[in-house]
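Teaching assistant's notes for section 4

Start the section by putting this record on the projector. Ask students to predict, before seeing the second block, whether Zinc-finger domain-containing protein will look compact or extended. Collect guesses on the board.
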Amino acid sequence: MRKQRVPWPVQVWAECREKLRHVRLRGDVEAYADGQLRGAHRTRVAAHVGACWACSGSLELLQLIKASLRRSPQRTPVSLAAARVRRFAHQLTAPPGSDRPGR
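Reveal the predicted structure now:
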């Protein structure tokens, strides 16, 4: 049986620091995908995304979602008046006695 190796405190701290950095960068990556960052901040985020596979994957996923939303047809919600007219028309064409109260 092998003895488990315990990581050094320095290594644990470095991993925690890196995780915290990614939590803070999550919003920056989203802003970068939207084109909202300018100047040096944009350059820093671009350099990080270029070097970090996790953040570059997040960026790619965001870009795919945005592209998909742009390609989808524009759907407008049904107006309340149109819904009421349809329900009234359905009630007029329904056989007698098939009304459901509360609808």
